[in-house]
């Protein structure tokens, strides 16, 4: 596909593990299958969670497995000016506003409205500060997930899209997540804003990532539309599960990826993606996986 640009965007909270190699390989294979370019972006805006040296370790692990980006990697921590510019545009156009609510304020407001049901541990923001701070200090900047209509009421924003694996998808943002945070007053840039700005700036056309991130898609498409950015195609791939049946992750003790046997690591990652790869060398294993990819994950 002419103009195809894909990316792998790990957070340097530790080295890659088996599950993150699956995500990296999937995005690399899709780019290769489309004759496109593959980028690596280090998502390090949440600096307190980042482990010193983990970014370089990740790049070394990718290289050991034969996954080389077409351009030098980028770091989100170097791109704050772009995020600030995007935020100011959203504010100027009336799409974002300051919020003074604490988590307790949100929980109390939801309880009063008999809506105190958490969503994956998060509280759905009820829009308390849409009408102003009323003398309170701002804690965060939020983006609207509803539009005010002629009679003064709020019309929820719904987002529909098609995932290359899951098919037609839709989400009512106001009901599912509420007005979500773009930046906290005392914290880093929110993932949702940073990733959308970066994908737009880098011209990313296709996002291939693990299915645990599928729930972010509607929020990101909403921001893309507000910022006048094109919406990439999305493909959410299977996850690697740990012995407890949960997603393999650094948080649940996933060991660092062993790259002393890169061919074995690539074969196992390919197997997790439903690809049977038995080639003896790294280059042949990657080529075999690439040849199998289009049938396993077609464009439509």
Automatic annotation (TrEMBL):
InterPro entries: Glu-Q_tRNA(Asp)_Synthase, Glu/Gln-tRNA-synth, Glu/Gln-tRNA-synth_Ib_cat-dom, GluQ/Sye, Rossmann-like_a/b/a_fold. Its EC number is 6.1.1.-. NCBIfam families: PRK05710.1-2 (NF004313), PRK05710.1-3 (NF004314), PRK05710.1-4 (NF004315), queuosine_YadB (TIGR03838). It is an enzyme of class 6 (ligase). Keywords: Aminoacyl-tRNA synthetase, ATP-binding, Ligase, Metal-binding, Nucleotide-binding, Protein biosynthesis, Zinc. Belongs to the class-I aminoacyl-tRNA synthetase family. GluQ subfamily. Pfam families: tRNA-synt_1c. A motif ('KMSKS' region) lies at residues 247-251. PANTHER family: GLUTAMATE--TRNA LIGASE (PTHR43311), GLUTAMYL-Q TRNA(ASP) SYNTHETASE (PTHR43311:SF1). One of its GO terms (molecular function) is ligase activity. Residues 7-254 form the Glutamyl/glutaminyl-tRNA synthetase class Ib catalytic domain. ATP binds at residue 250. L-glutamate binds at residues 7-11, 43, 191, 209. The lineage of its organism: Bacteria, Pseudomonadati, Pseudomonadota, Betaproteobacteria, Burkholderiales. Its cofactor is Zn(2+). This is Glutamyl-Q tRNA(Asp) synthetase. Binds 1 zinc ion per subunit. A motif ('HIGH' region) lies at residues 10-20. Zn(2+) binds at residues 99, 101, 125, 129. Catalyzes the tRNA-independent activation of glutamate in presence of ATP and the subsequent transfer of glutamate onto a tRNA(Asp). Glutamate is transferred on the 2-amino-5-(4,5-dihydroxy-2-cyclopenten-1-yl) moiety of the queuosine in the wobble position of the QUC anticodon.
């Amino acid at each position: 596909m002419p103009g195809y640009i894909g990316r792998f965007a790990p957070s340097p909270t530790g080295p890659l593990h088996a599950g993150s190699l699956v995500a990296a390989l999937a995005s690399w294979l899709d780019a290769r299958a489309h004759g496109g370019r593959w980028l690596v972006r280090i998502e390090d805006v949440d600096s307190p969670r980042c482990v010193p040296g983990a970014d370089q370790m990740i790049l070394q692990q990718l290289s050991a497995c034969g996954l080389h980006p077409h351009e030098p990697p980028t770091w989100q921590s170097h791109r704050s000016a772009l995020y600030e510019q995007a935020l100011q545009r959203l504010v100027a156009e009336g799409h974002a506003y300051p919020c003074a609510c604490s988590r307790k304020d949100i929980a109390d407001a939801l309880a009063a409205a008999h809506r105190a049901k958490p969503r994956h541990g998060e509280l759905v923001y009820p829009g308390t500060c849409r009408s102003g701070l009323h003398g309170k200090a701002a804690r965060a900047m939020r983006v609207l997930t509803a539009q005010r209509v002629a009679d003064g009421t709020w019309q929820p924003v719904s987002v529909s899209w098609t995932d290359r694996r899951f098919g037609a998808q839709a989400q009512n943002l106001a009901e599912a997540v509420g007005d979500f945070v773009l930046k906290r007053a005392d914290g880093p840039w929110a993932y949702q804003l940073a990733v959308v700005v970066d994908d737009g700036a880098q011209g990313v056309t296709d996002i291939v990532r693990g299915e645990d991130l599928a729930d972010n898609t509607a929020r990101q498409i909403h921001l893309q539309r507000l910022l006048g950015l094109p919406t990439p195609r999305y493909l959410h791939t299977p996850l690697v599960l740990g012995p407890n049946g949960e997603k393999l992750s650094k948080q649940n003790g996933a060991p660092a990826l062993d790259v002393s046997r890169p061919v074995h690591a690539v074969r196992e990652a390919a197997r997790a993606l439903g690809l049977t790869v038995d080639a003896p060398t790294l280059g042949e294993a990657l080529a075999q996986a690439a040849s199998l990819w289009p049938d396993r994950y077609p464009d439509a």
